[in-house]
Design goal:
alpha+beta, Uridine Diphospho-n-acetylenolpyruvylglucosamine Reductase, domain 3, Enolase-like, domain 1, five-stranded antiparallel beta sheet, globular
Amino acid sequence: MVDMDYIRPQDLAGALDFLAAHGPDTTLLAGGTDVMVDLRAGKLHSRYLLDISRLSEFRKIEACNGELTVGAGVTIAEIYASKTIARHAPALQKAAAAFASRPVRNVATIGGNVAHCSPCGDTIPPLLIHDARAVVVSPRGRRLVDVEQMADGPYHCTLRPDEIITGFILKVKPDEVEFVDFQKIGRRKALAIARISMAVMAQQQPDKSIGFIRFALGSCTPTPHRFRQIEEFLLGKVPDHRQSPAMAGLYGKTDRFGRKPGNWDMRRLKDIFSLPAFQPPGLPAF
């Protein structure tokens, strides 16, 4: 284990001052569920460990003017318990319920889950269907970054060494949207790392055709992202098995991570189409 100096700033300004001087040599510590594993494995070689877990600027959850703000230091357990998130971003709450074990949920933060840039980060697909942006601050100022652009590859974050994510701004769920879901498939039913995860927000018209949809996948691509081509394809259609071949073709054009085309594509699409919103009465089941 490498020797590191532990630093705990009193406020965000103090953290930014430290990063201005030592950013390239510093690792941020929020929940620590990934940092401590990497530290014990000898994968961290930073000179400093900057603890930002107690900064009050990172802890808020609030909804205002059609936007939901979630602080980067909010824990997964707090997301699960939040009535505000349950109302405005229910898929994010469902992802929190499926996230690791209770002890991990009690300390892991949404900011850390996003910044770790794992292809299987559970909170990322729900953030994507809400067009979430990360609030990023540095000694140079503040900028907003689409969560979809936070990673440019597996475990590779686009943040600069002197930047910190302070929170996320989500568009709240439209009132007319009735179906929102998060699901993940792992090797077991509990405490599993996702082999594929999915967040969807959809609304059907009176004729059962899809009038609104946002759809994001994790774990099966180098970085989680919205499948906008599939969204556009489904608009105006009544979902049934006849769409699967065309959707598989669209999915096959994506840059997938560790997967091969063919039967795997079709099985996962069937899993997605088996959701209640995609099985109107009278349509044949898969």
